[in-house]
Each structure stands twice: as C-alpha cells, then as structure tokens.
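To illustrate the input format used throughout this study, we show a single complete record. The first block contains the structure-token representation of the backbone; no residue identities are included at this stage. The design step must infer an amino acid for every position from geometry alone.
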C-alpha cells in the first residue's frame, strides 16, 4: 500500500511538472505568434519600401541613359568642332604661305616703283610723232626712250595686277578672321553646354539603408539587394587643356594675320601713292 501511494504521489508530481511545461509552451507559442504577426507587418512594409526604391532606381537608370546619350552627342559635336578647327588651321597655314608669297611680290613691285621713280619720264605728245619729227640720225636716244617707256608700262600693268591680287587676299583674310571668331564662339558654347550637362548629371543619387537591404535579402532571395547608385561628374582635363591650347594658338594666329593685313594695307597705300606720283 505504501508503494502504491508513493507511486501515486510520484505520478502527481510528474503530472504537475508536465502541466507547468505545457503552460510555458503555450505562453511561448503566444509570444511567437505575436512576434510572427509583427514580423509579417514589417515584411509588408519592407516590400513596399523595396517597390518604391525599385521604381526610383528605374527612373534614375533612365535618366542615366539620357545623360549618357547627351554626353555622346556632345562628344560627337566636340569631335566635329576639332575636325573643323584642324581644317581651319591647315587653311590658315596655306593663307600664311600665300601671304608670304604676296609680300615678296609686293616687295618686288615696290622695287620696280622705286626704279621708276629714279628715272622720271616726261612726254609731250605721242612718242611716235616725236620720233617722226626728229632727224633719223638722232632717233636712237628716242628709240631707247620708247623701249624704256614700254618696259615701265609693262611693269606698271604687272604692279596693278599684283595690287588686285593683294586686295583680293585682304578680302580672304577678313573672311578668315570672321570664320575664326565664329568657330571660337561655337567652341565656347559647346564647352558651356558640356559643363552644364556634367553638373546636372552629378545631382542624382538613390540609396538603400542597411536594415532595408537586409530584410529585402531575407524575403527576396531570388532578387539581390539594390546597390546605391550615385551619378559622378565626368571631367576630362586633358581635353580642356588641349582646347585651351588650341584657343591660344588661334588667338596668336589671328593676331599674326591681323598684323600682316595691316602691313599689306600700308604697303598698298604707299604703292598707290608712288604710282600716282610716277604715272599721274
């Protein structure tokens, strides 16, 4: 009987212990259920945040593509401008060579006018009439004078042709100066557009917090977390230095052409004055 009561007592204690464990498991189950509901709400919120950030990422990717296309267009325009600048440089070199040749012709024409000024010729009437009225034995000096006059006349015609060429070249120089100024203005406008586009591209960025990325990775194992996107400003110091050097070369070339133009104009004025004195 004592063994039976002891067994009953042991079983009652075991039952009480098991009932305590059941109560503990029920309380833990209720806590886990509450935590599960809270986590479900957080998961839904993180899904909404993820969808919004995905939409923002898509929008910024589209804007990045637009900026890239704009950059390519600006780069292509800059390349065309550099090609035009190189063509203009070659034309400037050719014009300089032609100007040097015209300067040599002008110096030669100036020497001709100086020789003509040393031997002034004064004619009364026609040379043929003078020769007919002179004794045939004394016509040799007049024949020499006629030859000298013909030579001076041919040199005068040649000088007039050279003057016409120089005046035509002055017009070409004016056109070349206007073309250089126009290309410089176009280059400045393109550089300003490029700088504005680069600064506009630097103002867009989208980021995701670590907690959002962590939760996003837990519930969306198939899709990796979105990385932070930041648009960087693109600079090309080498192209800027090259363009500044090209602009400096154009300014120097323009000054050289302008000084040569003034010198040719002065020589033309002097030559016209001498021709008016010698053949007026």
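Output of the design step:
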């Amino acid at each position: 009987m004592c063994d039976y009561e002891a067994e009953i007592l042991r079983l009652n204690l075991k039952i009480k212990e098991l009932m305590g464990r059941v109560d503990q498991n029920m309380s833990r189950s209720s806590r886990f259920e509450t935590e599960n509901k809270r986590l479900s709400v957080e998961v839904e919120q993180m899904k909404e945040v993820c969808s919004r950030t995905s939409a923002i990422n898509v929008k910024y990717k589209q804007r990045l593509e637009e900026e890239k296309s704009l950059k390519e267009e600006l780069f292509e325009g800059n390349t065309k401008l550099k090609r035009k600048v190189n063509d203009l440089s070659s034309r400037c070199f050719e014009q300089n060579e032609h100007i040097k040749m015209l300067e040599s012709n002008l110096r030669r024409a100036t020497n001709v006018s100086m020789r003509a000024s040393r031997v002034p010729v004064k004619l009364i009437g026609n040379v043929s009439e003078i020769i007919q009225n002179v004794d045939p034995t004394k016509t040799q000096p007049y024949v020499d004078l006629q030859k000298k006059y013909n030579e001076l006349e041919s040199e005068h015609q040649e000088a007039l042709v050279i003057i016409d060429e120089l005046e035509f070249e002055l017009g070409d120089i004016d056109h070349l100066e206007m073309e250089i100024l126009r290309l410089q203005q176009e280059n400045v406008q393109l550089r300003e557009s490029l700088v504005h586009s680069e600064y506009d591209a630097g103002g867009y960025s989208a980021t995701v917090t670590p907690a959002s990325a962590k939760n996003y990775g837990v519930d969306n194992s198939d899709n990796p977390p979105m990385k932070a996107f930041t648009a960087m400003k693109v600079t090309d110091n080498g192209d800027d230095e090259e363009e500044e050097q090209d602009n400096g070369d154009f300014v120097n070339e323009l000054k050289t052409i302008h000084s040569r133009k003034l010198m040719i104009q002065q020589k033309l004025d002097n030559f016209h004055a001498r021709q008016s004195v010698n053949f007026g």
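Structural context for interpreting the output: The helical segments are 2-118, 127-133, 140-201, 210-219, 237-279. Residues 203-236 have pLDDT under 50 and may be disordered.
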